[in-house]
Design brief:
- This protein is an alpha/beta fold.
- Helices cover 32% and strands 20% of the residues.
- The chain is built from 14 helices and 17 strands.
- Strands 11-10-12-13-9-14-15-16-17 form a nine-stranded mixed beta sheet, sandwiched between helices.
- A hairpin with a 4-residue loop joins strand 3 and strand 4 (130-134).
- Helix 1 runs antiparallel to helix 2.
């Protein structure tokens, strides 16, 4: 069938189709929404193949800039479509050109959502099911891949650019996009209903502390207090659940680090965006096809101690690397920052304790807890509320050991009945956004250490009149 006939057939199919999704009544009579059939699927495959054949090696020529490659692809694309002979409407031609261009130059059906600034996360559950997160809420979108092979090609394109691989022998992978967005992919045989892909987007411009204050993540006076803690070399553990905003908060806290210090960041997939001058970024590496060559987070933490760091920032501690991180904090690298998954400050320390035991070192529990109590000064716990907002709900001091227990005291805790004074948050009676992080009245015991480091904190921020705290300083402290 000629390209002209393909165009005619696709156009007739398009006019006959409806915009509504198909309802599948199989599987015990339960209605299941499935993606509508794309009438242009065969045509797009043919034009795509003609485009690849025409441009050939130019698509992979590293000497050609992305802008020049995009210009050539679009020029050839319009030429191929014009040769079809059947007139297309402006809307149809623009749609076809955009979709094929996205497939050749980008990530196919995901491109519209990657370009959408309101979309913060993209979840692909097989080739025909795509969900996105906007403003903390999930919704299904109409985009779809042609089949699982199409989705696998997109996954391979993403992971191949940073030297990662995904196949039957290694069916899970963590990767990142060029802009730093986090990517996780799972393929067969682990993914039963088709390959699964999750992309957590990062803003082109990293969020600043002023942004977090505007969003209502934390009040101004708490931001000032945390700034002083970072500058005063307090070791901070950022905890929270999946999607709570831990990495964003870690990035903001890291922005308080002075330019005069050497900072080493360690991550599974490099996401942190620090603008200090003296930063060394390290990224772990999975094993190769032969099962060799793996460099874990733990290996990088141990190696970083030989790199003369002033501060170590670990994107996430999730295994035996916790032991090496505690050792680093206890051997002259105070002021380091890391994140951990947990349900609360107390649970965060319990998870650190459990992960230390995973290292296989025969240590008594009391010795581990003493290491935890000595290494970590503050736990900042963050939660994603039911309304989609991200809030810091605890700023907790690790006081020390009392008998066999690590003692904690909340300096600030979230009050769900307090009015929210953040400028960008609506105070809805039905919304959790009406809450506020308020002082508990307890004064941190490390204030003398902060004072010795030249960070003088106004003790009024720990009392009920904290809402009158000084205005947040703009920019990063130096």
């Amino acid at each position: 069938m000629s390209l002209s006939q393909r165009l005619d057939q696709a156009r007739r199919s398009r006019e006959a189709s409806t915009e509504d999704s198909i309802i599948d009544l199989s599987n015990s009579g339960k209605a299941k929404r499935v993606a509508p059939t794309d009438p242009y699927a065969d045509l797009k495959r043919e034009v795509h193949a003609a485009l690849v054949e025409k441009l050939g090696p130019e698509l992979y020529d590293s000497t050609i800039t992305e802008a020049e490659l995009a210009r050539r692809v679009r020029a050839e694309l319009h030429e191929v479509l014009e040769r079809g002979g059947t007139p297309l409407s402006v809307t149809e031609k623009a749609r076809l050109a955009q979709e094929i261009s996205d497939d050749v130059l980008g990530y196919g059906p995901l491109e519209p959502y990657l370009r959408d600034a309101d979309v913060t996360e993209i979840m692909v559950n097989g080739p025909s099911v795509i969900y996105v997160e906007r403003h903390g809420k999930l919704s299904r979108v109409d985009g779809a891949f042609t089949n699982d092979q199409h989705l696998r090609r997109t996954i391979d394109k993403i992971v191949g650019r940073i030297g990662r691989r995904v196949d039957e022998s290694s069916p899970m992978v963590d990767a990142r996009l060029p802009d730093g967005s986090r990517v996780n992919a799972v393929v067969a045989p682990l993914a039963v209903d088709g390959s699964a892909l999750t992309i957590r987007k990062f803003a082109a411009d990293p969020y600043t502390v002023e942004d977090l204050v505007t969003f209502g993540t934390l009040p101004i006076h708490v931001a000032e207090f945390l700034r002083s803690c970072v500058r005063g070399r307090m070791s901070i553990l950022v905890s929270g659940g999946t999607g709570a905003g831990k990495t964003t908060t870690l990035n903001v806290l890291s922005s308080f680090l002075p330019d005069t210090e050497r900072i080493v960041t360690i991550e599974d997939a490099a996401e942190l965006q620090l603008d200090q001058e003296h930063v060394v970024r390290l990224e772990s590496r999975p094993s190769n096809v032969e099962g060799r060559g793996e460099i874990s987070i733990r290996d990088l933490v141990r190696n970083s101690l030989r790199m003369r760091p002033d501060r170590i920032v670990v994107g996430e501690v999730r295994d035996a690397a916790a032991l090496d991180m505690l050792q680093a904090m206890n051997t002259g690298h105070d002021g380091s920052i890391c994140t951990v998954h947990s349900n609360g400050p107390r649970d965060a320390l319990s998870r650190i304790e459990t992960m230390v035991l995973m290292a296989g070192v025969d240590l008594p529990v009391r010795a581990i807890r003493e290491q935890v109590a000595s290494a970590i000064d503050i736990v900042v716990h963050q939660t994603r509320m039911r309304d989609g907002s991200r809030r810091i709900t605890h700023v907790t001091e690790v006081v020390g050991m009392e008998s066999e227990i690590v003692t904690l005291q909340d300096i600030f805790a979230f009050d769900y009945n307090a009015p929210n004074l953040a400028p960008g948050v609506a105070n809805n009676a039905d919304s959790e956004s009406k809450g506020q992080l308020v002082p508990t009245g307890l004064v941190p015991k490390f204030l003398d250490r902060l004072s010795a480091a030249g960070e003088n904190v106004d003790t009024n921020v720990f009392s009920s009149n904290a809402f009158g705290a000084p205005k947040l300083r703009s920019g990063r402290s130096r």
